[in-house]
């Protein structure tokens, strides 16, 4: 990870446009969990890789992630990310859009350097899935017709696509057998879904000191996530009118968040959502079976449990 | 070009997110000149290419171009493009950012399909140069210290990088000799610079019916382009104070555009800018020398002259 961090520092520099490292350093400096690059390194090493292209791929994956965060904050008009003001607030939307584009291009350069067309294919497809998922989320977010199937599709796009690409390219660069590459993909896919469901659940039950977000941000931003989708699916006519007003029409008033939480409690949707997250974490650990018996496999196993351990 | 257009239509579709083709169709439907994909086709055919990867590359180049237009309009807060309302006005900034990302990912998929790492390398580098140029423009645009060298760097980034990549990949896919590939790059680079200088000049002397822009948009948006940079370089103290107020501080009032035009007339900077554009067009035509004697070479020659023929 030290080598990855050094590469990230080097490649995010720009001779001509000092605004670029300023913005990126703010975000990278905020110290995300670096979960995605770690997955790439782990996957490559688990499959016995001995070269150094996995470091480039890990940095690639983190650059793609950072670029999407920058663009997300513009799209969400967010003011806070990882407990700090967002780049679009500190600089402006322009900087977030353009620096995001720059990081995406840099990621692209890095992956070309690995010389692996298969890796390029996987990451190009993941990028398209991510972008498509973001657009889908934008149009589906406040639409009460959004059901669990659409939610899953959005989650696969916005989160799981990069997780599964991160693990898959680790296996591909190590020239692992097809069965292992598929196992790595399946693990990343399920881990990403568990991770995102946990994130959406914590929006309603986390405390802002830990998550860096305020309880109910998704409700205020009129985002239909799993806890609400499950409540909408069981809603009485009156309750449906409540969701239509607050989410679809965005006419929110004092006490609405409390009412929303009461409806989620009525149908125990937070607990049902937690069960879904646990199930996806279990799917992730089971996917690891075809992979070599190795301390890293155990670490990936523990990671899947950790991702949902924050839930209660 | 028909095959390119068909491919563009097919690839801009999205099963899951209908907003994507909506936004893209608006822009693609507005009928840009399709200059960049045409350059790729021309370069490949001029070098005797007989496969069909040049069609994918031409669509790639147009997707990159369209993606940057979508993001530019967010950054510039533009209301009009090609004489029609911009996507960010018709939908919202979110759609422009995310659909731009989607098109960029799609372009990336298309170029991976050609299986040429050299092509990928060229386009990855061009993408990074474009993004860097955009950031540089954002920070340099209203800074009176911006001189002709910085302007040229911005122009290379925002315009010429994609022109030169468009012509270069045409030669590369045709496996043309190094000397011809270099000639194609040099031609695209000089053509792109001539094109952008002409565009910046027409902002001050074009009529909006032809250009789809209003005279003086760049002045109002406080963009330092060549006609102004040349006037600032020769400014008296009083004139410098005028440029500082109107461009750097953005405190514009009634009559300022007329005053700016008067200062450009005083130093004949529009004519000097036109001469620069003509010189770059001439550089472009001269770059063609090492290429095969072929009707397409003549067409590229005529194109360079055409780009500056709008100037008077």
From TrEMBL, chains A, B:
Family note: Belongs to the FPP/GGPP synthase family.
PANTHER family: ALL TRANS-POLYPRENYL-DIPHOSPHATE SYNTHASE PDSS1, GERANYLGERANYL PYROPHOSPHATE SYNTHASE
Obligatory cofactor(s): Mg(2+)
Keyword hit for Magnesium: yes
Annotated Gene3D superfamilies: Farnesyl Diphosphate Synthase
The protein's name: Polyprenyl synthetase family protein
Keywords: Magnesium, Metal-binding, Transferase
Top-level taxon of origin: Bacteria
Pfam families (UniProt xref): polyprenyl_synt
The keyword Repeat is annotated on this UniProt entry: no
């Amino acid at each position: 990870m030290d080598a990855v961090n050094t590469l990230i520092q080097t490649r995010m520099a720009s001779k001509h446009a000092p605004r670029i490292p300023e913005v990126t350093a703010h975000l990278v400096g905020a110290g995300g969990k670096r979960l995605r690059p770690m997955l790439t390194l782990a996957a490559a090493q688990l499959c016995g890789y001995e070269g150094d292209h996995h470091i480039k791929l890990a940095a690639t994956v983190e650059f793609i992630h950072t670029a999407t965060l920058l663009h997300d904050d513009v799209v969400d008009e967010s003011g806070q990310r990882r407990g700090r003001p967002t780049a679009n607030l500190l600089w402006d939307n322009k900087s977030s859009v353009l620096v995001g584009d720059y990081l995406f291009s840099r990621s692209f350069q890095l992956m070309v350097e690995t010389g692996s067309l298969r890796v390029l294919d996987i990451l190009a497809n993941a990028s398209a899935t991510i972008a498509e998922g973001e657009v889908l989320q934008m149009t589906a977010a406040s639409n009460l017709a959004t059901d669990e199937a659409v939610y899953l599709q959005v989650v696969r796009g916005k989160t799981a696509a990069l997780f599964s690409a991160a693990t898959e390219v680790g296996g591909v660069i190590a020239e692992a057998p097809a069965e292992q590459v598929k196992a790595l993909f399946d693990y990343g896919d399920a881990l990403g879904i568990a991770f995102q469901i946990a994130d959406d659940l914590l929006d309603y039950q986390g405390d802002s000191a830990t998550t860096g977000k305020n309880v109910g941000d998704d409700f205020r931003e009129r985002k239909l996530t799993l806890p609400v989708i499950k409540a909408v699916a069981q809603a009485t006519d009156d309750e449906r009118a409540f969701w239509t007003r607050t989410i679809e029409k965005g006419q929110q008033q004092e006490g609405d968040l409390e009412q929303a939480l009461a409806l989620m409690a009525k149908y125990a949707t937070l607990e049902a959502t937690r069960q879904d997250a646990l199930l996806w974490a279990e799917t992730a650990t089971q996917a690891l079976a075809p992979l070599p018996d190795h301390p890293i496999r155990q670490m990936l196993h523990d990671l899947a449990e950790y991702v949902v351990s924050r839930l209660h």
